[in-house]
Amino acid sequence: MRNVVRKFIGPHEKELNEELIKLALYYRFEPVVTNVYSGNEKGHVEKSVQILRNKAFTKQYEFQTIEEAQKQLDKTIDRLNETTDIGAEQENLKSLPAAYGYAITTKQSIDKYSFVHVQGNHYSVPDYLVDQQVTVKRYLYELKIIRNGHLICTHALSKGEKQFVVDINHYLPTFLRKPKALEHSLVLKNMPRLHQCFLQHYKQTPRRFLQFIDKQKQLPMEQLVHYLEEEALKDQKVFKSSPSKAVNEARSQLQEYNRMHQVRKVKMK
């Protein structure tokens, strides 16, 4: 199985999967792998796991969180051990170390758009990390991106394919320097609620839009959009852009023409 053996080196030698080795070191057991076409080498433990799985997860096999699944398993084990000498066995068990990191860990390089690619989806990271390498930890429902031992960002894990999971805060320093680049950016187009708010209220004032986001960057998306819409209603500058230089010059010329025309009418009289 691929989740146990990474590759076969010889007739009887195998290279084990790194995740299995980590699990074995954590729980302090030694993996024993059988040979090909040697079913007689299998022990009875595999059947025991199947029995326990059927007892615990036959009636309910879908859970919202890993904690709920663990609670169901613990409840089943307690029920099965009511008539055993589990108490005596526990006295000889070794203490459990710190919580096990059950994530699938990989190394990723950041592309030129400041995304990492995981299972066909794109997840944003701060744009100063472009072309850098980071550690990606994929959990059941979330993705953590780490560099030099420090957590950079966290994303909810996307269940679709070719999806963009974007945090606009990762691009704010660049957009504040180049606010006109925001309107047609890949980042904004992949954030529908924020994109709609921008086009409706802030298309003429992108820098102001970015400054508001920078001010309230900790807000969840729905609250952030609500805040931006409220500010748009308060500030008429969001809706009405100031006249351009050409408009002002044309207005001045028209006023000068009207003044001269009135002077000529007076002279003619």
Question: Overview of this structure, please?
Answer:
This protein is of the alpha+beta class and 269 residues long. The chain folds into three domains: 5-90, no CATH class; 104-165, no CATH class; 168-269, no CATH class. The chain has helices at 18-27, 45-57, 66-80, 86-90, 172-177, 186-189, 192-202, 206-215, 221-234, 245-268; strands at 5-8, 14-16, 104-109, 115-118, 121-124, 133-138, 142-147, 150-156, 164-165. It has a four-stranded antiparallel sheet, with no helix packed on it. Strands 4-5-9 form a three-stranded mixed sheet, with no helix packed on it. A hairpin with a 2-residue loop joins strand 7 (142-147) and strand 8 (150-156). Helix 2 packs across helix 3 (66-80). The model has no long low-confidence stretch (mean pLDDT 83).
